Amino acid sequence: MTTTRSTPGANRALWLSTVAFTVCFAVWTIFAIIGVRIQENLGLNETEFGLLVGTPILTGSLSRILLGIWTDQYGGRVVYVLTMLSAAAATFLLSLATTYPWMLVAALGVGLAGGSFAVGIAYVSKWFPPEKQGTALGIFGAGNVGAAVTKFVAPFVLVAFGWQMVAVAWASVLAITAIVFWLATDDDPEIKARRARNEKPRSLLAQLEPLRHQQVWRFSLYYFFVFGGFVALALWLPRYMIGVYKLDIETAGMLAALYSIPASLFRAYGGHLSDRYGARTVMYWTFGVSLVCLLMLSYPQTDYVIHGIKGPISFSTQMNLIPFVVTIFVLGFFMSLGKAAVYKYIPVYYGNNVGSVGGLVGMIGGLGGFVLPLAFGIMADLTSIWTSCFMLLFLIVAVSLAWMHFSIRHMEQRAAGDVLAKLPPLAELEHAHSHEEHGPHHGLIEDWRPEDETFWETTGRRIARRNLWISVPALLLAFAVWMVWSVVVAKLPAIGFTYSTDQLFWLAALPGLSGATFRIFYSFMVPIFGGRLWTALTTASLLIPAFGIGYAVQNPDTPYLLFLILALLCGFGGGNFASSMANISFFFPKKEKGNALALNAGLGNLGVSVVQFVVPLVITAGVFGVVGGEPQTTSEGTRLWLQNAGFIWVPFLLVTTVAAWIGMNDIASAKASFSEQAVIFQRKHNWIMCWLYTGTFGSFIGYSAGFPLLAKTQFPEVNSLPLVFLGPLVGALSRAATGWIADRWGGGRVTIWVFTVMIAAVAGVLFFLGIKDQPNAFWGFFAMFLLLFFATGVGNASTFQMIPAIMRKEVGRLMPGLSAAEQTRHADKESAAIIGFTSAVAAYGAFFIPKAYGSSIAATGGPELALWGFLGFYATCIAVTWWFYTRRGGLLHDIERGGPSDSGTRRKTAEAGKPAEVVPVPAGVSR
After folding, report:
1. 157-161, long-range: CB within 8 Å, 24+ apart, which pairs?
2. 905 and 891 in contact (C-beta within 8 Å)?
3. How would residue 922 be classed by pLDDT, with cut points 50, 70 and 90?
4. CA-based angle 747:845:602, to the nearest 5?
5. Which H or E run includes 768?
6. Does residue 400 carry a pLDDT above 90?
7. What's the half-sphere exposure (Cβ side, CA atoms, 13 Å) at 349?
8. Per-residue model confidence (pLDDT) at position 907
9. pLDDT at residue 328 is higher than 70
10. What is the pLDDT of residue 662?
11. What is the DSSP string of 28-69?
12. In this predicted model, which residue has the larger pLDDT, 190 or 87?
């Protein structure tokens, strides 16, 4: 930008540009009114109507980037006038069209009126300095009120003279406006200065260069909603209100204007707020309020029947016309603020490329005005739900808000510490970080030094422990919801659900599949969203499957597909482990990190036992009274409240969510570089340990998921459900209690013993299944599974005890040039990454083991084939452990055979002339 203050003629240029844009916008949205009559005359369906309404929006959008660039090159005055005259000619020709294809062709030309926005933005911005551009561009953008002008006036012209006269009148006004604009305005100061210097305009490629920045495309997504959504609703609302509320076209147009007016006029106020408080703050308010409004608008009319004490109680939910108009008024108001805020960003960041960047952002926003009406029509045709249009907008806002928060969080991480004071003096950055303006962010810790002994003793320990003791119940509940299907599926046949055994095992297995997959993604979420926000969100997300299960199991006619979806959603609980462990690891110093992670993981694991102990109790009584619903009568004549298996967790989830939001903290400096950790994918031992840990933890979580149903199907005469919680309980406790064994004798050797015991235990299970008709066979079967669970717990500790020892030796071999301290740092970093990745891979055991049971029973009539497969897998684990680690010449042989004092993760540092350094790995870090 060459202008540093407003120049003479700036106000005239602003107001004439705004008037011209108002007329252009009135022409651009002309189909919002005349399109309804054209639909009636030609018999168009909703999709064809959406295409007709959206076609001008397409042209107006695609033309914006070129019109913006031409404005920078040749000046806004001449480009503005030529654009208006071209659009006026196309609008007049529209009145002569008689068929749908020719109307589409004319609509393409009408769309040029929308392209005028990019011209006006670039033209007006050159007249004003940066501190006034937000307000000036907000005033210009208020020309969106042209949509309201069309809705107010066009219906009366249409009823009196026909839709063709609307097109003729609008074309005439636009042509006159173009002529007045040419005569009353002047070229902008920048184009005059360039001509005085005989300087050529910058090339097209130079103008397009900023478009490679991701930030530009992020701004474009914001504008896709605030402007594209505005245009789409401005076009769609008359049709919506005619269809939903049975209004006539005049009334619908008038009421739709109540949306268009605030979504236009208040854009100027949005520019003022962006200048004063920063664009970021305005965007947060825009997205937050829009989410609430769209959630209310999305809910379709629904009829309910409650079976009350004195008979059915019927009622329905519907947003009546008055609340609807009020809600869209509020939505339009905040969208207008957002439109101004987006264009506050552009001159600040891209002052020399307002035309191209503003053109691209405007193009994407305009494309929203084309794509969304078409999508609204298609969704209405496919779903027959009028409110589906608001559902789509809700999804777009949610994605936009998440991306914006991700970007801000990333910037805050980079700005932590001393860098914070060096941020550039941009309005949106100053107000986002200024304590004087906003005060400290609740829950955000900008100064966190756990390795500083003084800080830790005086401040850090108290904060870290508070976060840990809130994280523990959150993780326990996550495991409980993750494994709830392991109990529920065993009771479904008794209350009338006629699912096959294989279908039931699918339900038990799917939470394991989704939970393991979620873990991979959840591992990266804490540095993005912050531990406080992410813990609260993920804990609250468990309410969805908890409520869903509670309602679904009450009706035997519930589709199996719905149960599959609920089972997948329970995987939210499985994913929580990865983010919970990552979050807690940031709070503690190295000397206490192992114990903290042990408590978090070990007590969280107890959720598996808790669910298998609690659910069989609560489903036998009406814990929630009439609110919880009626009981189901089983095939044996007893009563069950199976819905309590879901509902019982709801109050605890609510309390824990609130506790996480109020009591936990975010650490500004907490960050994890994926590129630094990605080196583990090149380490063969990462993949080997994935194989071994799948054998231990994968077995633990898989047996936990499948044990209740397996016991029920193989020993139906035994009421095993009250006992099955003992298996996961033994596995969880043995992991925490036996870590010293691996420290004493070496993880590799203990892992071989573990798999040997697991083979023997599986053989015992096979034996007792073979004689399951004999008295007391169940107790032998049960004892063998307890032995299996015990062995998996020991193996969870021993396999993870191996990882730091392996990586310290491997890093020393791969990076011999590094100092001992640097080798240790690299080894610890890679060990942590491998621990996280192997925990995600091993969690797939929660899917494969129950699914293997189901497939085996479906194919052979019994689970024996699956168990033989597990036995063979454990044999390969023994071979792999021996070959790579414990045989003479194996990686850990010298460490583990050096005697008790050298076992575990002892590292020799003879080159430094120091005694060997013992680096113990707490048993609780097993996962």
Report:
1. 158/33, 158/34, 158/37, 158/249, 159/249, 159/250
2. no
3. very low
4. 55
5. helix 747-770
6. no
7. 19
8. 39
9. yes
10. 84
11. HTTHHHHHHHHHHHHT--HHHHHHHHHHHHHHHHHHHHHHHH
12. 87
What does the DSSP 8-state code read for residue 21?
Answer: H
What's the CA gap between 903 and 894, in Å, rounded?
9
Residues 6+ apart with CB under 8 A from 203: none
Is the distance from CB of 778 to CB of 720 less than 8 angstroms? yes
Phi, psi of 913 (to 5 degrees): 70, 25
Cβ-based neighbour number of residue 156 at 10 Å:
13
Confidence category of residue 439, pLDDT binned at 50, 70, 90:
very low
Q: Which residue has the higher pLDDT, 808 or 539?
A: 539
Per residue in 13-71, pLDDT (tens digit) is: 888 888 888 888 888 778 777 777 787 777 777 667 767 777 787 777 777 777 777 77
899: pLDDT strictly greater than 50: no
pLDDT in the model for residue 214? 65
Q: Which amino acid is present at 457?
A: E
> Strand pairing of 632-633 and 639-640?
antiparallel
User: 150: helix, coil or strand?
Assistant: helix
Mean pLDDT of the chain: 76
* Contact (Cβ atoms closer than 8 angstroms) between residue 575 and residue 530: no
Q: How far is CA 614 from CA 181, 575, 663, in A?
A: 76, 22, 27
Q: What is the rounded (10 degree) CA torsion for 812, 813, 815, 821?
A: 10
Quick one: which of 706, 731, 695 has its CA closest to 849?
Answer: 706
Q: DSSP character for 213?
A: S
The residue with greater pLDDT, 486 or 868, is 868
Q: How far apart are CA 852 and CA 871, in angstroms?
A: 13
∠ CA(313), CA(559), CA(716), 5° rounding? 105
Q: Is the dihedral of CA 597, 599, 602, 603 positive or negative?
A: negative
Q: Can you tell me the distance from the alpha carbon of 30 to that of 147, in angstroms, rounded to the nearest whole number?
A: 8
Q: List 506's β-bridge partners, or say none.
A: none
Q: Are 584 and 450 in contact (CB under 8 A)?
A: no
The dihedral sign for the CA sequence 779, 784, 785, 786? positive
C-alpha distance from residue 307 to each of 304, 629, 644 (Å):
10, 9, 18
Tokens of 775: 């008295």
Instruction: Give the pLDDT confidence of 676-729 residue by residue, as tens digits.
Output: 555 666 788 888 988 888 888 888 878 877 787 788 888 888 887 778 778 888
CA dihedral sign of residues 220, 221, 224, 229: negative
Cβ–Cβ < 8 Å for 877, 691? yes
Report d(CA 253, CA 553) in Å as an integer.
46
Contacts of 462 (CB under 8 A, 6+ apart): none
How many other CB atoms sit within 10 Å of the CB of residue 129?
15
pTM above 0.70, yes or no: no
**Letter for the amino acid at 453?**
E
pLDDT at 564: 85
Interhelix angle 321-349/279-298, rounded to 10 degrees, is: 150
CA distance 608 to 702: 11
pLDDT value, residue 615? 84
First to last CA, the chain: 56
Please give the Cα distance from 145 to 141 (Å, whole number).
9
Tell me the C-alpha distance between 826 and 824, whole Å.
6
189: confidence class by pLDDT, cuts 50, 70, 90: confident
Q: What is the sign of the dihedral through the CA atoms of 658, 663, 669 and 670?
A: negative
Two tokens, residue 146 = 């042209």
Q: How do residues 342-351 score in pLDDT, each as one tens digit?
A: 877 666 666 5
Nearest to 52 by CA among 106, 91, 112, 89: 106
CA distances from 174 to 65, 139, 168, 528, 848 (A): 22, 20, 10, 49, 67
What are the distances in angstroms from CA 140 to CA 86, 279, 395, 538? Answer: 21, 17, 29, 42
